[in-house]
Amino acid sequence: MVNSLQSTTTLHNGVKMPRLGLGVFLVEEGEEVYNSVKWALEHGYKSIDTAAIYGNEEGVGKAIKDSGIPREELFITSKLWNGDQGYEETLQAFETSLNKLGLEYLDLYLIHWPVPEQNKYKESWKAMEKLYNDGKIRAIGVSNFKEHHLEDLMKDAEVAPMVNQVEYHPHLQQRSLHEFCKQHNIQLEAWSPLKQGKLLDDPTLTDIAKRHGKSTAQVILRWDLQQEVVTIPKSVKQHRIQDNADVFDFELTEEEMKLIHDMNKDERVGPDPDEFNKR
Predict the structure, then answer these.
(1) CA dist 131 to 113, 201, 257, 269, Å?
(2) Which domains, ranges and CATH numbers included, belong to the chain?
(3) Is the pTM of this model over 0.85?
(4) Which residues of the chain have pLDDT under 70?
(5) Taking Cα atoms as reference points, which of 160, 156, 255 lies closest to residue 204?
(6) Catalytic residue among 54, 109, 121, 168
(7) Is 54 a catalytic residue?
């Protein structure tokens, strides 16, 4: 039952992952990210999602430490950047992230992009399997992987990915990928669930929001939850962080779910994973 910020989904290795968390993409290191994480934790969030390339792991770690919340109650994710892919490089990059965060282990570590030009993600995955088997990471996964990347990775993997974090919102529903992930017990997770704010004035969503006395953002996040997709909206404003979590006291009807279902355009705001080679 998805009825609170403490609601979790169980990954295929038995680890429980919160269904809603805070993302900190494009949140500045220092006071901005510190406050964002601090407010989220004070409001009851348990899941924080960062990445090496965001450049804000230290601020995230400081807010976690200062919160006084027992480490085992939190779910912390970071990601391996493209230029750090490869076996030894992954082991080193992981240690760097862990040190910056000031943590002894991560709950989830993801390969950030498949990076077609390098094609090193299998080497990186071997390193992540080692870290997982050594107990340094509770769950391992990928980000921005399409079906063919997942198939390729799983051919040689000893441990199947537990999570695939991708761009996912009403204009990019990635239904075949979602279905593939369900079949293989890979939890789909949404980044940019609000399409970087571009959906907030959409008339279909605005109409549904009015019916429930909610905001369009809350409707989208509720839709994610009812689609069994983990979601990590980002905000640096305290009231928005609180509002984004206020999605557990209403439910979208089948008709409303269908209206949102019909909004799909296969339209991205981020790069296509088959083409993204940034180092």
Answers:
(1) 19, 44, 40, 32
(2) 8-197+227-235 (3.20.20.100)
(3) yes
(4) 1
(5) 255
(6) 54
(7) yes
